[in-house]
Amino acid sequence: MELILTEKHTDGYSVNWKIKETLHVEQTKYQHLAIVETYEFGRALVLDGIIQTTVKDEYMYHEMIALPALMTHPNPQKVMVIGGGDGGTIREVLKHPSVQQVDLVEIDEKVILACQKYLPEISCALTDSRVRIFVEDGIEYVQRHKDKYDVILIDSSDPIGPATNLFHESFYKNVYEALKTDGIMVCQSESPLFNRELLGNVHKSVKNLFPITRTYLATVPTYISGFWSFTMGSKRYDPLNAEIPLDVVNRLKTKYYNADIHKGAFVLPEYVAELFR
């Protein structure tokens, strides 16, 4: 019997995935979780019926949520990742030579465990000695930490279920306060085509707090429309002026990110730029 996973994004737009095999299914305390084997993109993490990451294209997202901020900051030593229980963002953070500690704050331990079992190429860095894992609400965690992190990455799922409050200005304010005086934050800010109002609101909220706010784009084929946005708030360093040392980039051994992508990602199409005027 042929298995089809249908992602319904709007009343008029849905995506069908042909599934070769369902490897794991459970209802956690927070969401419905599944690990499936797709025909086109290999194994995938599915939360509440929406594909979050696949082994074929995950590096596009994980490199781009992590590396622009790490390469903008001159000496990122202490990093926090909120969400991101699959471990892909942690893996990319640990590629940077100056990083000494990464704190993963993931509300749903079941995501971590499932990804460690079924997606080892994505979760492989979670056992690194520099990683500390906190199974708790990221909103509550940042409220207890002030002036502590060089970089904070908000690797949330879509703004439904447990991730809803990770898109509010009050949360970004606590993130701002958890950063050091020259800290940088990045959040994934959804599709610039299908989530225009949300992207505009996120940019505005971050701009209300940070002196430097930049939205940048990347291609992630498995996400709605295949085009994805990230919003960066920086207390001191402008990613447009960052000097990208090629020796460090070469050490990262990336598949998507490079020095030219760093610059080009911040060049916005008019339909995106107009949201921020």
Automatic annotation (TrEMBL):
<feature type="binding site">
    <location>
        <position position="31"/>
    </location>
    <ligand>
        <name>S-methyl-5'-thioadenosine</name>
    </ligand>
</feature>
<feature type="active site" description="Proton acceptor">
    <location>
        <position position="155"/>
    </location>
</feature>
<keyword id="KW-0808">Transferase</keyword>
<comment type="subunit">
    <text>Homodimer or homotetramer.</text>
</comment>
<feature type="binding site">
    <location>
        <begin position="137"/>
        <end position="138"/>
    </location>
    <ligand>
        <name>S-methyl-5'-thioadenosine</name>
    </ligand>
</feature>
<dbReference type="GO" id="GO:0008295">
    <property type="term" value="P:spermidine biosynthetic process"/>
</dbReference>
<feature type="binding site">
    <location>
        <position position="86"/>
    </location>
    <ligand>
        <name>spermidine</name>
    </ligand>
</feature>
<dbReference type="GO" id="GO:0004766">
    <property type="term" value="F:spermidine synthase activity"/>
</dbReference>
<keyword id="KW-0745">Spermidine biosynthesis</keyword>
<dbReference type="InterPro" id="IPR037163">
    <property type="entry name" value="Spermidine_synt_N_sf"/>
</dbReference>
<dbReference type="InterPro" id="IPR030374">
    <property type="entry name" value="PABS"/>
</dbReference>
<feature type="binding site">
    <location>
        <begin position="155"/>
        <end position="158"/>
    </location>
    <ligand>
        <name>spermidine</name>
    </ligand>
</feature>
<feature type="domain" description="PABS">
    <location>
        <begin position="2"/>
        <end position="235"/>
    </location>
</feature>
<comment type="function">
    <text>Catalyzes the irreversible transfer of a propylamine group from the amino donor S-adenosylmethioninamine (decarboxy-AdoMet) to putrescine (1,4-diaminobutane) to yield spermidine.</text>
</comment>
<protein>
    <recommendedName>
        <fullName>Polyamine aminopropyltransferase</fullName>
        <ecNumber>2.5.1.16</ecNumber>
    </recommendedName>
</protein>
<keyword id="KW-0620">Polyamine biosynthesis</keyword>
<feature type="binding site">
    <location>
        <position position="106"/>
    </location>
    <ligand>
        <name>S-methyl-5'-thioadenosine</name>
    </ligand>
</feature>
<feature type="binding site">
    <location>
        <position position="62"/>
    </location>
    <ligand>
        <name>spermidine</name>
    </ligand>
</feature>
<dbReference type="InterPro" id="IPR035246">
    <property type="entry name" value="Spermidine_synt_N"/>
</dbReference>
<comment type="pathway">
    <text>Amine and polyamine biosynthesis; spermidine biosynthesis; spermidine from putrescine: step 1/1.</text>
</comment>
<dbReference type="InterPro" id="IPR029063">
    <property type="entry name" value="SAM-dependent_MTases_sf"/>
</dbReference>
<feature type="binding site">
    <location>
        <position position="162"/>
    </location>
    <ligand>
        <name>S-methyl-5'-thioadenosine</name>
    </ligand>
</feature>
<dbReference type="Pfam" id="PF01564">
    <property type="entry name" value="Spermine_synth"/>
</dbReference>
<dbReference type="InterPro" id="IPR001045">
    <property type="entry name" value="Spermi_synthase"/>
</dbReference>
<comment type="similarity">
    <text>Belongs to the spermidine/spermine synthase family.</text>
</comment>
<dbReference type="Pfam" id="PF17284">
    <property type="entry name" value="Spermine_synt_N"/>
</dbReference>
<dbReference type="GO" id="GO:0005829">
    <property type="term" value="C:cytosol"/>
</dbReference>
